[in-house]
Amino acid sequence: MKESENPLETNPTETTAEIASIALQVIPVAGGILSSTAMFFLERQKNERLNRFLINLAEDLKQLEDRVNSEFVKQEEFRDLTEDIFSKASDTRQQEKLDALRAVFLNSVLSANPKYNDIEEITTLLSNWQSRHIILLKILYDPIAADKRRGNVVGEGRGLSTTIMDILRRLLPDWEEDEISRTMQELHDKGLQQMTGLKTMITDKGIHQLKGRITPFGIKVAKYIMNPLV
Fold this sequence. Notes:
The protein is mainly alpha-helical. It has 11 helices and 2 strands; from the N terminus they run ααααααααβααβα. The longest helix has 17 residues, at about 50-65. The chain is elongated and about 60 Å long.
């Protein structure tokens, strides 16, 4: 392929799946494994979400190619990682989960010392989660940034007392209270956050009341599901 050619440009005879495979194939060092694995899952389960996932992954990898751990991508664990994430992506309908799986892949190949057991544990969590778990974990990882994105709806505090539930409901106005409670409990049960008693009255320090509530494991998972290009 000529350097001037864009692998994401199509012509009438090419399918979207072929474009995804071609886009991955041009990634230095890892392209062959990525492309062949992609075609396996695309042929097994044809869906536009998987096509888009793979094209987005190719676009991200092209931007990050200078930072990819070239030694890791030569190992058998890289092939295992590729098969695991592509397989889970092929069975996923929710965009939040697809974005998180893509981020895990990217952060894994950028790591100087990726630990496959940790990565596998995180992708298994994602496979069993709903979008709500990912959204809430990201809020707990960086509550100040989450509040800023919402227009500082929590801010520095509004009075003498509040509850964690009240803070979360301001950040998640479209969620039912039960949805917040269940998601927080499930994150707690998996060792990702430390809070219980969401309706207990606490001093109103605003968004700062959410800081430091995430566990070390929760921090590790959150870092893996953050796209390094965002």
